[in-house]
Amino acid sequence: MHNLGNSKKMQKVISLSLLLSLFVSFFWGCNKEEPIPSYIYIPSFTVEAQPDFGTSTSKITEAWVYANNDLLGVFPIPATVPILATGETDIRIFPGIHEAGILARPTIYPFYEPIIMNHVLTAGKIDTLPLVTQYLSSDKIELALNITFDIGNVLTDDLDEDSATLVTIVPEGAEGAGGLLLVTDTSSNLSVGNNSLFSLPANGSQVYIEMDYRNDTKFSVWMRGHQSTGQGDIRPISTINEQEDWNKIYIPLTPFLQSNKWVDYQFVLNLKLTDDEIANGKTEAKVYIDNIKLLRYK
Ligand SMILES: [Ca+2]
């Protein structure tokens, strides 16, 4: 009885070790046959704007890479992308941005063309592909606003009732001339709108504001307009933190439009030195802006 018990135990040990060795050799075998990936290296992902679409500043932060219709991943630029394929491969790369500059909200920017190519891949080889995209064509999208400050200023509707605060044109924009919002401890509030009303879709179709900026104090983007009852309204859209160097932001407007469904809209910027900031010795605040675009589908 005793012996039998031992031999059963031994059998168990043997079968376990057999199983283990089979297990190991199975995966070892897999490792040995694992294919060598091909690689693409994306050093940069930029935009070349068509003449109708103003200047070409952009901030594409990621590449969303598909090979033969499979999403391989979302790769921060510059990116090395391993692809388990060789020979002619259908590669599609979508330009990625961060909604409203928020890291946790990466998304494909719908108004830039994806890069679509039939690329010949070689195992173990790295192909360097600097990518240049462009806006969707002008028969698909349009700019409800395109403010470059290079041919004057349309941010002229003074909403703050202080004639000392306004947007001035300065030579040092992101590209060419730019706009400057300046407030001081004596004239501490600036609210300014563009000089025309426009309509925007409320059916869930994507709408974005693009803007280049650098600022030493927080400022806000607002929308002003009329409700269907004809009543005027104004709502905050996004508050933008201090940024020492020129930066670009892509602000999605779609959720706001869907929940408000106004008849018309006006683009508004607000800069305000708070009482606290003034009490702490801050005497002025500056926001530089350029290349404000409001993009929508036609
Ligand atoms: Ca400019």
Account of the 3D structure:
The strands form five sheets. Strands 11, 13, 14, 16, 19 and 21 form a six-stranded antiparallel β-sheet that branches. Strands 3, 4, 6, 7 and 8 form a five-stranded antiparallel β-sheet that branches. Strands 12-15-20-17-18 form a five-stranded antiparallel β-sheet, with no helix packed on it. A hairpin with a 5-residue loop joins strand 17 (219-226) and strand 18. The radius of gyration is 28 Å and the shape is elongated. The chain has helices at residues 2-33, 254-260, 275-279, and strands at residues 38-42, 45-47, 62-67, 70-76, 79-83, 87-98, 106-108, 115-121, 126-128, 131-133, 141-147, 157-158, 167-170, 178-184, 189-193, 207-215, 219-226, 232-240, 243-252, 264-272, 284-297. By secondary structure, the protein is mostly beta strands. The structure holds calcium ion (CA). Calcium ion (CA) is lined by residues 148-150, 173, 175-178, 290.
- How many domains make up the coordinates? 2
Mean residue pLDDT: 91
Spell the H/E element sequence.
HEEEEEEEEEEEEEEEEEEEHEHE
- State the helix count: 3
Present as ligands are: calcium ion
